[in-house]
Amino acid sequence: MAITLKTSYFSANSPNHVEFHEQSLIELIENGQIGQIIHQSDPDYQKTLTAAQTTDQLITIAPGHYLLPGFIDLHNHAPQWPQAGIALDRPLNDWLNHYTFPLEARFADLDYATAVYRDLVHTLLTNGTTSALYFGSIHNNANLKLAEICAQLGQRAFIGTVVMDNPEQTPANYRDVNSATALSKTRTFIQAIQNQHPDQLVQPVITPRFIPSCQTETLTQLGRLAQETQLRVQTHCSQSTWEHQYVLDRFGQTDSVVLQQFGLLNQHAVLAHATQLTTADQQLIKTEQAAIAHCPLSNAYFGNGVFPTKQLLDQQLKIGLGTDIAGGYSPSLYTNLQTAVTASQMRQDGVDARLPADSRGVADSRITTEEAFYLATAGGAASLAINAGQIKLGMLADFQIVQAAPQFTTLTPADQLTHLLFNHTAQQIKAVYVNGQLVHQKEQNWYDNAQ
Ligand SMILES: [Zn+2]
């Protein structure tokens, strides 16, 4: 029997439009989707409410709580979770070589991987993240364990076994032996995920780490595999001054052009960071319908520039938000959407007050809270081409129920959303649903069936 939630909710249909409805009836049907939504103004409202009460399938969300779409983390390195917040004051290549690669190498140990991944996936769910696009490590066994844990805990996950085989840019104890090994490992991983997760709650992603860490033959072969399988691709793109220049030096072209030439830039691709894009790169990404995972916290440390979120949203590129664990220290997309707003403001105003005010920043760069909310929800869903990220008929029932912080004044719905998003802690995320199933519950006081 279908469950009906009686709740107030926010949902972003577009970057510029967030819907708010009070005390609507949202029916969850057995295939994990939203079966129907009845608003208070609907003539069938009372009849539907009475029917749900009679069959004892009504869950009335307690006053002061709101339902939001689950957040979608578009860029997360699962094996980097143990070093969240560590060495962020080092340059990117130093951070990779001295901290990140040695840590990821430890995931050859399946017990270690199991302990870390259980904690990470649980932490993300408690922060309202219902879907995540993960980079694993180079180890298939550990990556399959991550997939198993996501399925057990009920998180929608897109996982890649990381390919990195360039001896000049990867350490001897943490690299794929050669192109052939990297390709066969990827094929094996794809097959295993598809066999073990036929319900597609977990799906495989082709994952060249980034151009510097892959040999040319490997990029060629992965591009052919992407063409053959039509699977999603994830990689880093024009992430920092060093990385962007490395690709220019090696290929004489930017990341975006090189990825496109290898068949790795298409409508199934998610490119992380992209802070160093040229105008031509931006146009190419739009034309190819690839998506960008904007990681504002990580960019503050490693991006060497502020991502032009507003400009690219206005050009209708596909953009979502990523934590970039552990290039960003926080597992929370709340923290990242707050930072997205803050960073866009700094891009607009500039950072050096010795320059004249009108030439210090980039005009029209500021994004609104609504736009940041869109990025964390519907923008991420569009980037992954999944039927989620909005509270809407036929969408997957992936959402979070959040208690508002104490209020001492009357707020408009728009201000209520901003207050909710900026005054949040994980303590206030009371319940999380994925596919219509309750996968996390903080305590049981978020609903009141006496009403
Ligand atoms: Zn990354």
UniProtKB/TrEMBL annotation:
Cofactor note text: Binds 1 zinc ion per subunit.
Enzyme class: hydrolase
EC number assigned by the record: 3.5.4.3
Amidohydrolase-related domain residues: 66-439
Any one GO molecular function term: zinc ion binding
Gene3D superfamilies membership: Metal-dependent hydrolases, Urease, subunit C, domain 1
Catalytic activity field: guanine + H2O + H(+) = xanthine + NH4(+)
Entry keywords, A to Z: Hydrolase, Metal-binding, Zinc
SUPFAM superfamilies: Composite domain of metallo-dependent hydrolases (SSF51338), Metallo-dependent hydrolases (SSF51556)
GO annotation (BP), single: guanine catabolic process
Pfam family membership, one: Amidohydro_1
Pathway(s) of this molecule: Purine metabolism; guanine degradation; xanthine from guanine: step 1/1
Residue ranges of coiled coil: none
Superkingdom of the source species: Bacteria
GO annotation, cellular component aspect: cytosol
Keyword Zinc: yes
Family: Belongs to the metallo-dependent hydrolases superfamily. ATZ/TRZ family.
PANTHER family attached to this UniProt entry: GUANINE DEAMINASE (PTHR11271)
Protein purpose: Catalyzes the hydrolytic deamination of guanine, producing xanthine and ammonia.
Protein name (database record): Guanine deaminase
